[in-house]
Design goal:
single chain; 7 helices; Glycerol-3-phosphate (1)-acyltransferase; globular; alpha/beta; 246 residues; seven-stranded mixed β-sheet
Length: 246
Protein backbone atom coordinates (compact mmCIF):
# COMPACT_ATOMS: atom_id res chain seq x y z
CA UNK A 1 0.00 0.00 0.00
CA UNK A 2 2.81 2.39 0.91
CA UNK A 3 4.55 1.62 -2.39
CA UNK A 4 1.36 2.31 -4.37
CA UNK A 5 0.83 5.61 -2.54
CA UNK A 6 4.43 6.62 -3.25
CA UNK A 7 3.94 5.78 -6.92
CA UNK A 8 0.82 7.98 -7.09
CA UNK A 9 2.67 10.85 -5.43
CA UNK A 10 5.49 10.40 -7.95
CA UNK A 11 3.00 10.57 -10.82
CA UNK A 12 1.46 13.79 -9.50
CA UNK A 13 4.91 15.27 -8.94
CA UNK A 14 6.08 14.51 -12.49
CA UNK A 15 2.84 15.90 -13.93
CA UNK A 16 3.08 19.23 -12.12
CA UNK A 17 6.80 19.44 -12.93
CA UNK A 18 6.09 19.41 -16.66
CA UNK A 19 3.07 21.69 -16.27
CA UNK A 20 5.29 24.26 -14.56
CA UNK A 21 7.40 24.61 -17.74
CA UNK A 22 4.77 26.33 -19.93
CA UNK A 23 3.45 28.34 -16.98
CA UNK A 24 6.86 29.82 -16.21
CA UNK A 25 7.61 30.24 -19.92
CA UNK A 26 4.45 32.32 -20.27
CA UNK A 27 5.67 34.59 -17.49
CA UNK A 28 9.35 34.91 -18.42
CA UNK A 29 9.54 34.66 -22.23
CA UNK A 30 8.58 38.30 -23.03
CA UNK A 31 11.43 39.44 -20.76
CA UNK A 32 13.86 36.74 -21.94
CA UNK A 33 13.36 37.89 -25.54
CA UNK A 34 14.58 41.32 -24.51
CA UNK A 35 17.48 40.32 -22.25
CA UNK A 36 19.03 36.88 -21.78
CA UNK A 37 19.49 37.47 -18.05
CA UNK A 38 15.76 36.79 -17.75
CA UNK A 39 16.27 33.45 -19.49
CA UNK A 40 18.65 32.55 -16.67
CA UNK A 41 16.08 33.81 -14.17
CA UNK A 42 13.51 31.52 -15.77
CA UNK A 43 15.65 28.37 -15.66
CA UNK A 44 16.77 29.09 -12.11
CA UNK A 45 13.19 29.61 -10.98
CA UNK A 46 12.10 26.38 -12.64
CA UNK A 47 14.92 24.37 -11.07
CA UNK A 48 14.23 25.74 -7.59
CA UNK A 49 10.56 24.89 -8.08
CA UNK A 50 11.37 21.28 -9.01
CA UNK A 51 13.72 20.92 -6.02
CA UNK A 52 11.13 22.37 -3.62
CA UNK A 53 8.24 20.27 -4.90
CA UNK A 54 10.37 17.09 -4.96
CA UNK A 55 11.11 17.58 -1.28
CA UNK A 56 7.55 17.86 -0.02
CA UNK A 57 5.76 15.77 -2.65
CA UNK A 58 8.01 12.69 -2.87
CA UNK A 59 10.44 13.16 0.01
CA UNK A 60 13.45 13.68 -2.25
CA UNK A 61 15.85 16.35 -1.02
CA UNK A 62 18.40 17.86 -3.39
CA UNK A 63 21.82 18.80 -2.06
CA UNK A 64 24.79 20.51 -3.73
CA UNK A 65 28.19 19.95 -2.12
CA UNK A 66 31.63 21.37 -2.72
CA UNK A 67 32.69 24.80 -3.89
CA UNK A 68 30.26 26.08 -6.52
CA UNK A 69 32.24 27.63 -9.41
CA UNK A 70 31.13 31.13 -10.36
CA UNK A 71 33.86 32.01 -12.84
CA UNK A 72 34.30 30.85 -16.43
CA UNK A 73 35.11 27.14 -16.13
CA UNK A 74 34.49 23.79 -17.79
CA UNK A 75 32.35 21.47 -15.67
CA UNK A 76 32.58 17.74 -16.47
CA UNK A 77 29.75 15.98 -14.71
CA UNK A 78 28.40 12.51 -14.14
CA UNK A 79 24.89 12.28 -15.65
CA UNK A 80 22.33 9.85 -14.25
CA UNK A 81 18.96 11.55 -14.71
CA UNK A 82 17.15 14.85 -15.25
CA UNK A 83 17.58 15.72 -11.57
CA UNK A 84 21.36 16.21 -11.78
CA UNK A 85 20.68 18.82 -14.48
CA UNK A 86 18.21 20.50 -12.13
CA UNK A 87 20.72 20.57 -9.26
CA UNK A 88 23.58 21.86 -11.41
CA UNK A 89 21.53 24.65 -12.97
CA UNK A 90 20.05 25.67 -9.62
CA UNK A 91 23.54 26.24 -8.18
CA UNK A 92 25.45 27.78 -11.11
CA UNK A 93 24.97 31.46 -11.96
CA UNK A 94 25.44 31.15 -15.75
CA UNK A 95 25.14 27.49 -16.75
CA UNK A 96 25.22 26.33 -20.36
CA UNK A 97 25.45 22.80 -21.74
CA UNK A 98 26.85 20.80 -24.60
CA UNK A 99 23.55 19.22 -25.69
CA UNK A 100 22.39 16.82 -28.37
CA UNK A 101 21.16 18.67 -31.45
CA UNK A 102 17.63 17.20 -31.33
CA UNK A 103 16.88 19.09 -28.12
CA UNK A 104 16.92 22.44 -29.91
CA UNK A 105 13.49 21.53 -31.34
CA UNK A 106 11.98 20.56 -27.97
CA UNK A 107 9.09 22.89 -27.06
CA UNK A 108 10.12 25.58 -24.53
CA UNK A 109 13.18 23.63 -23.36
CA UNK A 110 14.97 23.95 -26.70
CA UNK A 111 14.46 27.70 -27.04
CA UNK A 112 15.59 28.42 -23.49
CA UNK A 113 18.61 26.15 -23.89
CA UNK A 114 19.76 28.15 -26.91
CA UNK A 115 18.96 31.45 -25.18
CA UNK A 116 21.26 30.69 -22.24
CA UNK A 117 24.06 29.63 -24.60
CA UNK A 118 23.85 25.82 -24.84
CA UNK A 119 25.78 24.34 -27.76
CA UNK A 120 23.96 21.72 -29.90
CA UNK A 121 26.00 18.95 -31.53
CA UNK A 122 25.33 15.90 -33.73
CA UNK A 123 25.91 13.22 -31.14
CA UNK A 124 26.15 10.32 -33.61
CA UNK A 125 28.96 11.80 -35.75
CA UNK A 126 32.06 11.85 -33.60
CA UNK A 127 34.51 13.93 -35.63
CA UNK A 128 31.88 16.37 -36.79
CA UNK A 129 30.38 16.59 -33.30
CA UNK A 130 33.72 17.48 -31.73
CA UNK A 131 34.32 20.23 -34.30
CA UNK A 132 30.77 21.57 -33.86
CA UNK A 133 31.28 21.57 -30.12
CA UNK A 134 34.56 23.47 -30.26
CA UNK A 135 33.31 25.97 -32.88
CA UNK A 136 30.06 26.56 -30.98
CA UNK A 137 31.77 27.17 -27.67
CA UNK A 138 34.45 29.45 -29.12
CA UNK A 139 31.86 31.51 -31.01
CA UNK A 140 30.01 32.17 -27.74
CA UNK A 141 33.03 33.41 -25.78
CA UNK A 142 31.40 36.84 -25.54
CA UNK A 143 28.90 35.32 -23.09
CA UNK A 144 30.97 33.92 -20.20
CA UNK A 145 29.57 31.24 -17.96
CA UNK A 146 29.99 27.71 -16.69
CA UNK A 147 30.08 25.25 -19.59
CA UNK A 148 28.78 21.80 -18.64
CA UNK A 149 29.65 18.67 -20.55
CA UNK A 150 28.76 15.07 -19.76
CA UNK A 151 31.94 13.12 -20.61
CA UNK A 152 30.02 9.87 -21.03
CA UNK A 153 27.71 11.56 -23.52
CA UNK A 154 24.42 10.34 -22.04
CA UNK A 155 22.61 9.35 -18.86
CA UNK A 156 24.18 6.32 -17.20
CA UNK A 157 22.29 4.29 -14.59
CA UNK A 158 23.91 3.61 -11.21
CA UNK A 159 26.23 0.62 -11.34
CA UNK A 160 26.61 0.77 -15.13
CA UNK A 161 30.05 1.51 -16.59
CA UNK A 162 30.36 3.51 -19.79
CA UNK A 163 33.52 4.89 -21.36
CA UNK A 164 34.40 8.58 -21.19
CA UNK A 165 34.65 10.48 -24.47
CA UNK A 166 37.64 12.57 -25.47
CA UNK A 167 35.57 15.73 -26.16
CA UNK A 168 36.03 16.85 -22.55
CA UNK A 169 39.82 16.78 -22.92
CA UNK A 170 39.67 18.67 -26.23
CA UNK A 171 37.53 21.42 -24.70
CA UNK A 172 39.82 21.66 -21.68
CA UNK A 173 42.79 22.11 -24.02
CA UNK A 174 41.12 24.52 -26.48
CA UNK A 175 39.49 26.76 -23.87
CA UNK A 176 42.44 26.91 -21.50
CA UNK A 177 40.03 26.90 -18.56
CA UNK A 178 40.06 25.06 -15.27
CA UNK A 179 37.98 21.90 -15.24
CA UNK A 180 35.65 21.20 -12.32
CA UNK A 181 34.60 17.53 -12.13
CA UNK A 182 31.18 16.81 -10.62
CA UNK A 183 29.90 13.55 -9.14
CA UNK A 184 26.34 12.48 -8.34
CA UNK A 185 24.08 9.79 -6.91
CA UNK A 186 20.74 11.10 -8.21
CA UNK A 187 20.02 7.98 -10.27
CA UNK A 188 19.51 6.02 -7.05
CA UNK A 189 16.36 8.06 -6.39
CA UNK A 190 15.35 9.50 -9.77
CA UNK A 191 15.89 6.93 -12.57
CA UNK A 192 16.81 7.60 -16.19
CA UNK A 193 13.29 6.65 -17.27
CA UNK A 194 9.98 5.99 -15.55
CA UNK A 195 7.79 7.76 -13.02
CA UNK A 196 8.68 6.36 -9.60
CA UNK A 197 10.77 8.62 -7.35
CA UNK A 198 12.35 7.39 -4.11
CA UNK A 199 12.74 9.51 -0.97
CA UNK A 200 16.24 10.35 0.20
CA UNK A 201 19.07 12.81 -0.38
CA UNK A 202 20.15 13.25 -4.00
CA UNK A 203 23.56 14.89 -4.23
CA UNK A 204 25.64 16.66 -6.85
CA UNK A 205 29.15 17.30 -5.58
CA UNK A 206 31.66 19.67 -7.16
CA UNK A 207 35.15 18.19 -6.84
CA UNK A 208 38.54 19.98 -6.69
CA UNK A 209 39.58 21.75 -9.87
CA UNK A 210 41.87 20.29 -12.47
CA UNK A 211 44.19 23.07 -13.63
CA UNK A 212 47.01 23.33 -16.15
CA UNK A 213 47.68 21.63 -19.45
CA UNK A 214 48.40 17.90 -19.65
CA UNK A 215 48.25 15.15 -22.27
CA UNK A 216 44.72 14.17 -23.24
CA UNK A 217 45.10 10.60 -22.00
CA UNK A 218 46.37 11.79 -18.62
CA UNK A 219 43.50 14.25 -18.30
CA UNK A 220 40.87 11.66 -19.22
CA UNK A 221 42.24 9.05 -16.79
CA UNK A 222 42.28 11.57 -13.96
CA UNK A 223 38.81 12.88 -14.81
CA UNK A 224 37.21 9.44 -14.97
CA UNK A 225 38.92 8.22 -11.81
CA UNK A 226 37.87 11.25 -9.76
CA UNK A 227 34.26 11.35 -10.98
CA UNK A 228 33.64 7.61 -10.74
CA UNK A 229 35.30 7.28 -7.32
CA UNK A 230 33.28 10.17 -5.87
CA UNK A 231 30.04 8.99 -7.51
CA UNK A 232 30.52 5.47 -6.12
CA UNK A 233 31.03 7.00 -2.67
CA UNK A 234 27.85 9.08 -2.96
CA UNK A 235 25.83 6.11 -4.21
CA UNK A 236 27.09 3.95 -1.34
CA UNK A 237 26.08 6.75 1.03
CA UNK A 238 22.60 6.59 -0.52
CA UNK A 239 22.39 2.84 0.10
CA UNK A 240 22.99 1.68 -3.46
CA UNK A 241 24.09 -1.94 -3.53
CA UNK A 242 22.94 -2.54 0.05
CA UNK A 243 19.82 -4.46 -1.01
CA UNK A 244 16.29 -3.41 -1.96
CA UNK A 245 14.74 -0.48 -0.15
CA UNK A 246 11.16 0.77 -0.17
Amino acid sequence: MAHAWRWIRSLVFVGQMYLAMPVLALVFTPFALWDRKYAFSAVHTYCHWVIWTARWMVGLRGEVRGEVPRDEVLICSKHQSFFDIILLVSALPRPKFIMKRELRWAPILGWYALRIGCVPVDRGKRGRAIQQMVDGVLSDRAHPGQLIIYPQGTRVAPGVRKSYKVGAAILHEKLGQDCVPAATNVGVFWPRTGIYRKPGVAVVEFLPRISGRMPQETFMRRLEDEIETASDRLMAEAGFGAGPAD
